[in-house]
Design a protein that fits this description.
Number of domains: 1
Shape: globular
Order of helices and strands: HHEEEHEEHEHHHEHEHEEH
Largest sheet: 6 strands, mixed
CATH topology: Rossmann fold
Distance between the termini: 40 Å
Strand content: 15-25%
Strand order of the largest sheet: 6-7-8-3-9-10
Radius of gyration: 19 Å
CATH superfamily: P-loop containing nucleotide triphosphate hydrolases
Length: about 270
């Protein structure tokens, strides 16, 4: 029995609770006719709870589309997306918004902190948007965990880029989400600071049981994950478990070379 058949079988749902995210035959196309662009071409993916997954691939391979569909920010053209065993594919926009606020955390390259709010208020923002009681003690505890104890009253502009990303990680964790999605979370940071931020994401997985899914172009960043998934032309092109930077870089170089060869062959034809 295939994974897709299993997902359609109610008796299998208990076993699937081990998965934080599932994509079942997901396709995402943009446009129509000859101008159609295929972002994803039938992706099947299961990510276990408490895992750290990096997603890599050449430019245009479908990384961001995969992240957006998995997080409920975009709807697949075909297929199903499950979050914690719940099929979110056909949910209304209002329900998707509620789900993202309560069960999903986000860490972006640009931090996306509100400059008019204090650090502590930024961390508490997801609870406020979800209509929950503001847990100031939890916010301060998270700020302590990410190395920002005592800085809760400052504004984002008073912090370094690395400190702002630490605030973003604390904010992503405040609702105890099922999954934290990172879109190039270290792309704007220097090497040392990036390593520190990745260590915090790794700590969230190992110590807090979080599930992290991170799109990155950096082999060193990907090496912090348990598993690296490679995309090319909207399809999976391989994976690595317990990756190291050298093996990730070698796999990426091979994918880029293969794509260049296909492009040259198409031009010659």
């Amino acid at each position: 029995m295939t994974r897709r058949q299993q997902a359609g079988n109610d008796s299998q749902r208990g076993a699937d609770e081990a998965y934080a995210v599932e994509l079942l035959g997901v396709r995402r196309s943009y446009g129509s006719g000859s101008s159609t662009v295929h972002g994803l071409r039938g992706v099947d993916l299961s990510l276990r709870r408490g895992s750290f997954t990096a997603v890599m691939g050449p430019s245009g391979s479908g990384k961001s589309t995969l992240l957006q569909c998995a997080a409920g920010l975009d709807r697949p053209t075909e297929g199903r997306v499950l979050l914690g065993g719940e099929d979110i594919t056909g949910l209304s926009e209002n329900r998707l918004t509620e789900l993202r606020r309560s069960r999903v955390g986000f860490v972006f390259q640009s931090f996306n902190l509100l400059p008019s709010l204090s650090v502590e208020q930024n961390v508490l923002l997801p609870q406020r948007l979800a209509g929950r009681r503001l847990d100031v003690r939890q916010a301060r505890h998270l700020l302590d965990q990410v190395g920002l104890a005592g800085l809760g009253r400052r504004r984002p502009a008073e912090l370094s880029g690395g400190q702002q990303q630490r605030v973003a990680i604390a904010r992503a964790l405040i609702t105890r989400p099922e999954v934290v999605f990172g879109d190039e979370p270290t792309g704007a940071l220097d090497t040392v600071t990036a390593r520190e931020v990745l260590g915090l994401l790794r700590q969230a997985v190992d110590s807090m049981g979080a599930t992290v899914v991170m799109v990155t172009h950096d082999p060193a960043a990907a090496a912090h994950a348990d598993r690296v998934l490679f995309l090319a032309d909207g399809m999976f092109a391989g994976e690595l478990y317990r990756p190291d930077p050298a093996s990730v870089e070698a796999r990426m170089s091979a994918l880029v070379a293969a794509g260049r060869d296909r492009a040259c062959a198409g031009a010659a034809a």
